[in-house]
């Protein structure tokens, strides 16, 4: 009986570890997608600031130059 309880606890622990691993993997993928989205938004913002500055002032400051 004691071995069955120990085995049950080990199985429950293993299931919990697998469940948490799957959740962590999913969260990491969502974080990577969010970081890429933020990076893309920042690049578009810099490009729009660059175009706006060119349209209003002419020369673009170095801080607003399009990054390649």
Oligomer: single chain
What integer value in Å does the Rg equal? 26 Å
Strand content: under 5%
Which structural class matches the secondary elements?
mainly alpha
SSE arrangement, N to C: H
Overall helicity:
over 70%
* Shape summary: rod-shaped
What's the mean pLDDT score?
Answer: 89
Number of helices: 1
Task: Give the N-terminus to C-terminus distance in angstroms.
Answer: 67 Å
Question: For the report, how would you describe the main beta sheet?
Answer: none
Question: How many E-type strands?
Answer: 0
Keywords: Membrane, Transmembrane, Transmembrane helix
Transmembrane segments: 6-24
Could you explain the architecture of this structure?
The structure is a single chain. The chain has 1 helix and no strands. The protein has 68 residues and is mostly helical. The protein has a domain of 39 residues. The protein is rod-shaped, with a radius of gyration of 26 Å. Keywords: Membrane, Transmembrane, Transmembrane helix.
